[in-house]
Amino acid sequence: QVQLVESGGGLAQAGGSLRLSCAASKRIFSINFMGWYRQAPGKQRELVGSINGGGTINYTAAVKGRFTISRDNANTLYLQMNSLKPEDTALYYCNVRAAAWAGGNNDYWGQGTQVTVSS
Questions:
Q1: Rounded distance, CA 74 to CA 32, Å?
Q2: DSSP characters for 68-103?
Q3: What is the CA radius of gyration of the chain?
Q4: pLDDT value at position 43?
Q5: What is d(CA 57, CA 2) in angstroms, rounded to the nearest whole number?
Q6: Is the dihedral of CA 46, 74, 111, 15 positive or negative?
Q7: Comparing C-alpha atoms, which of 50, 40, 61 is closest to residue 114?
Q8: Could you tell me if 7 and 20 are in contact, meaning their C-beta atoms sit under 8 angstroms apart?
Q9: Residue 75: closest CA among 20, 24, 41, 2
Q10: What is the rounded CA–CA span in Å between residue 63 and residue 79?
């Protein structure tokens, strides 16, 4: 079973930076989507940034120009977060979706890493 392990969360001051990483315990083949989600207390989980199988990158409007999503050749997923704001405080999750042998997709999720931004 593949596990995703996130790291890099923590406490930052407003205006500061953090870099999140998400590594898989085994190589994942046929990836068609990689994304970072976040969920703040009392709010729904939202997609922050994503890379699809063709390399197209998208961001939610709230983080455009401040966050950068990337991946490396080992399919480790990163989220560079700059100019952090208190409203970025949330539990951040990585998600990887890959085509399954039998059709459909396999969805993998990390356990979440907490990001807290103080004003």
A1: 15
A2: EEEE-TT--EEEEE-S--GGG-EEEEEEEEEE-TTS
A3: 14
A4: 96
A5: 24
A6: negative
A7: 40
A8: yes
A9: 24
A10: 11
Q: How many angstroms separate the CA atoms of 72 and 56, rounded?
A: 15
Task: Identify the CA nearest to 35 among candidates 109, 116, 114.
Answer: 109
Q: Which of 50, 49, 21, 42 has the alpha carbon at shortest distance from 87?
A: 42
59-72 pLDDT per residue, tens: 999 999 999 999 99
Structure tokens at 118: 């103080």
Q: Which residues pair with 47 in a beta bridge?
A: 37
16-40 average pLDDT score: 96
Per DSSP bridges, beta strands 77-81 and 90-99 are unpaired
Question: What residue has token string 């990158």?
Answer: 57
pLDDT at residue 22 tops 90: yes
Say what the alpha-carbon torsion angle 96, 104, 53, 115 is, to the nearest 10 degrees.
Answer: -20
Q: How far apart are CA 76 and CA 3, in angstroms?
A: 12
pLDDT in tens, 39-98: 999 999 999 999 998 999 999 999 999 999 999 988 899 999 999 999 999 999 999 999
